[in-house]
Specification:
Layout lengths: L1 E5 L2 H18 L4 E4 L6 H13 L8 E4 L1 E3 L10 H8 L11 E2 L8 H15 L4 E4 L21 E4 L2 H7 L12 E4 L2 H5 L3 E6 L5 H9 L17 E6 L7
Length: 241
């Protein structure tokens, strides 16, 4: 792992955006794995600014998001498809037909997971996979468990994840209890992985990811085994390192 230490959230966001934009500039038809949540918002905002200045062109890029809440359609304000459209895609020149998110509205779990795996298999290897990290060390919605997942699957969300995500809902009771998520094997197949982390509440998870044993009890620890992984984190997130 290569650790890039940043002063604060804004610095972390800019450095994260730098790596993503460099990938797109070097390979205009890059395949990007993308993440949601509050952590990457600053990076997406920076990429939008650079697009508006003419510094980066997304017209040939294709994207594949990590996850989506089970039971939410793409037009639901709390869905990750809605988040990506309104936070990023609507503000750049990407072809919406080249942006992909698991179909949370499909109640047939086997069908929905197989469809997303088939989509990614046809796309081939991701050039860059952007990740956040949960307070319990999850990546995507791959919660701590007894083994590492492989393909896209439906996850029962941990209570800590539900609590953390409840800030984005009117009530904790509104937070879905399940989500579709790329598997760890899906994530690890990317050429390059970029983990963005911010805040003291992520410090233990970041420490365990970098220095702890490789164990499914901290899903992110598997990234120690990846050959090209960047961790871009602010001082608070790296406070235990």
């Amino acid at each position: 792992m290569r650790i890039i230490r940043c002063k604060d959230y804004d610095d972390m966001s800019r450095k994260t955006a730098n790596i993503i934009s460099a990938q797109v500039i070097l390979k205009p038809n890059a395949k990007l794995g993308l993440a949601t949540g509050t952590t990457p918002i600053g990076a997406y905002e920076q990429l939008i600014k650079w697009y508006e200045k003419g510094d980066v062109d997304f017209s040939e890029v294709s994207t594949y998001n990590l996850d989506e809440y089970y039971g939410l359609s793409g037009d639901h304000p709390q869905s990750y498809r809605y988040f990506m459209d309104h936070t990023f895609f609507d503000h750049i020149n990407i072809d919406k037909g080249h942006t992909h998110v698991p179909d949370g509205s499909n109640p047939n779990i086997d069908e929905a997971c197989a469809a997303y795996d088939e989509l990614m298999a046809k796309a081939g290897q991701m050039d860059l996979q952007l990740l956040g990290i949960g307070r319990n060390g999850h990546v995507g919605f791959n919660e701590p468990g007894e083994s590492f997942s492989k393909g896209t699957h439906c996850v029962e969300l941990a209570e800590s994840t539900i609590v953390a995500n409840s800030r984005l809902f009117d009530s904790i009771d509104d937070v879905p209890r399940k989500a579709y998520s790329m598997g760890v094997q899906n994530i690890m197949s990317a050429k390059t992985i970029l983990v963005a982390a911010s805040g003291e509440d992520k410090a233990q998870a970041v420490y365990d990811m970098i220095y702890g044993p490789v164990s499914p009890h901290c899903t992110a620890s598997i990234l120690q085994l990846h050959g090209d992984c960047f961790v871009v984190a602010d001082e608070d997130a790296l406070s235990l390192c």
